[in-house]
Amino acid sequence: MLKKFILPATLGIILLLGVSFFMLSSKDGQTKLAGEAKVEEAEEKAFPTEEPQAEQASASATESEKEEAVAEAKETSDDTEKAKKPEEEKADEEIPSIKKYINVSTLNVRSGPETTHGVVTVLAINEEVKASSEVSKDGWVKISFKNSTGYVNSKYLADQQVVVKEEIKEEKVVSTTNNTSEKKEPAATQTERKKPAATAPTVPAKPKNDAMNLKTVGSNNQLILVTTSGYGTNSAKIQTFERNSNGDWVKVLDTSGHIGKNGFAKKKVEGDGKSPRGKYSIGTAFGQKGNPGTKLPFKAITSDDVWVDDPKSSLYNTWQSRKATEGQWSSAENMAISAYNYGFVINYNTQRVPGNGSAIFFHISSGATLGCVGTSQSNVVSILKWLNPAKSPTIIMTPSNELGSY
Q1: pLDDT digits (tens, 9 = 90+) for 373-399
Q2: In the chain, is it the N or the C terminus that has fewer CB atoms within a 10 Å radius of its CB?
């Protein structure tokens, strides 16, 4: 019976001990888990996870890159502005015109960059002008002067005024004594005369031209000179001159042209193909394209207009209506031709002496004429605009070696 009691009791004790052990083990495990949780929580507080730090670092890097990009862009902009500034300063420093001086006695200033353009005015040596920095391949350059502009060839411009040397003539002083030697001048005087011409004041020389020595133009203030190298040529030089306020002749135009195909005639004969030598007044201006702006009396040409060149006609050397005068002449020149688009009458044989020549004009031509004076249309128009009856214009036609006769 005791064995029966002891066995169950022993089993009960063993079971009780096992339960107690289990309970103790479970409590220790919970305590351990709680401790580990607390440790992990402490570690998280002390050492934050790396992911936020990476994000923060990335954000910082992005901000830094933006700042560097902005700085680089600003630096590039500053460099661009610095690069622009020299260009702008260079543009500001560019001078559109340069001070120049005329280096020839007289210079025609034209309305365009060719000799075919009309003459605006004439400038004298050492006159100051402003010249453009741009020069054409032919050397023409635009200048400004006295509130006007025009064109000249750059080879006639200089950076400095031309020194005009004046000769100093030393006069010999003969002694009043028997000694025939020359009297020596004081040393001071000799020194003064040895001074170089450059130290003397620069005085513009008076322009010398073909009009200055003429003796028959005292009552004229405008002059046209038509000259050739001799009697047997039809190639002519045409110059125009006008007196300035000092009474000196100033050249206005210098160009080329033609006269009669057989040259000049000392005594003109109708139909000889020669131009009459002499000095003549200026008559009526004419044309088929309207008045170009001349102050001369102007007559428009129509298809009915003729100039009678029949020496036997009472209308010889006059402008007539074909319809109104038919039957009164056997020969007359038709006025409605292209050569007479612009021109003027040269008052030759105004007494209408039969056979002495008729219809002598100044008109458009590119070659020899039958007795008139011809040049380009631009020159004819330029001269027509320049002529002024109030200035008593005249024309002299002669070989250049006979200018002394006028």
Answers
A1: 999 999 999 999 999 999 999 999 999
A2: N
